[in-house]
Every structure is written in C-alpha cells, then in structure tokens.
Design a protein that fits this description.
4-stranded mixed β-sheet; two-stranded antiparallel sheet; 6 strands; 19% helix
C-alpha cells in the first residue's frame, strides 16, 4: 500500500499475545482508529505498519497493519450456537446437494415431531432441499446429509474459517495467517 492509500483501507490484523489471530472467519481486524487508540492506551504492541502515516501538530506515526494484544485473551472452549456458526461448521454448503445459494436451517428431526434447535439436530440446507424435505423425517424424505451434524469445537470452526480467506490480505499479515488454500501473490 502506498502512503496515499485512504485510511479506511488500512485495517489492522489483531493477534492475541501468542501471535495467533483472534479469529480467522471473520478475520480479526480493527479499524485504523481503533488500532491507534489501542496503541496510545498501551494495550497492544505494533508488529508491522503500513507505509501510510497519520500526523497532528504534536504527533506522527505509521498506521499499524498488524498488532498484538499485550494481555492474552483465552479463546472460548465451546462456540455459541448461531446460524452463522452452523453455516460455518457446514462450510456454507447445503448438506443435501452442496449448493451455497439461499441457505437455511433444516431440522433433521422436524420440530413438529419434537425436534429441537440444537447442534446435533440442525444442518445447513438450501431452500429447495429444505422445502423438498419439508416436515418429514430423514427416513421418510429419502434424503441423507453429506455429514451428520455435531457440536463443533472452536478449533473446528477456526479450521473451517481458514477455507474462506477474505478478499483483502495485506502482505504484512501473511506470516500470521495459515490458509488451507493457495493464495496468489
């Protein structure tokens, strides 16, 4: 990035104090304002900078591109159950046909039959497959998911998140990010 890059295009990659990203998906990024505020408050260490500077009459600094927290944040052991996390566990694919369009939840044991909204009873399904299955059980619908649902660990979700690198990856971030796909330089 050159020194004339708009500041809005200068997010900082946030690493835990062990130099691992706080999350891969979504990637742990802070705005340039939040990263500079954290530097001034002495909450982070600057690991790398953009070539872009900010200035005031009494202050001048390069905009951080990678920062690490001074205090370690212990990652959650168990992920919260959410639509996003179910989609992430299932790699944003319908578990019946593989589509990534119009994704919804599908209850393997339908709610009408007492099925609960839990990790073990929910899979990602496209709208077409969800309508096709309807309120039927798996055996009556004749459909079978590619993967049976399970409770993921935070590590499982982090690993899935590495399959979805963001559109923008600054070169200074690459030593801290380990993606499952080959990135073009």
């Amino acid at each position: 990035m050159n020194s004339f890059m708009p500041l809005e295009q200068c997010p900082a990659l946030v690493l835990n104090s062990d130099f691992r990203p706080l999350s891969h998906y979504p990637l742990s990024l802070w705005s340039w304002q939040d990263s500079i505020k954290a530097v001034i408050l002495d909450r982070v260490n600057i690991v790398a900078n953009y070539s872009r500077q900010i200035r005031s009459p009494s202050f001048e600094m390069y905009v951080p591109s990678v920062i690490s927290l001074k205090n370690y944040i212990k990652p959650n052991r168990n992920p919260i159950f959410s639509r996003f996390n179910v989609f992430l566990r299932d790699k944003f694919q319908c578990q019946y046909c593989g589509s990534n369009k119009d994704l919804t939840f599908d209850h393997l044991i339908p709610r009408s039959n007492g099925g609960e909204t839990t990790w073990e009873n929910i899979v990602t399904a496209c709208s077409c497959c969800n309508v096709k299955k309807g309120g039927k059980s798996l055996s009556k619908s004749g459909m079978k998911p590619y993967n049976l649902p399970k409770i993921p660990s935070m590590s499982d979700l982090d690993k899935c998140g590495r399959s979805f690198p963001p559109n923008f990856l600054h070169e200074s971030w690459m030593d801290f990010l380990y993606w499952d796909i080959q990135l073009d330089k």
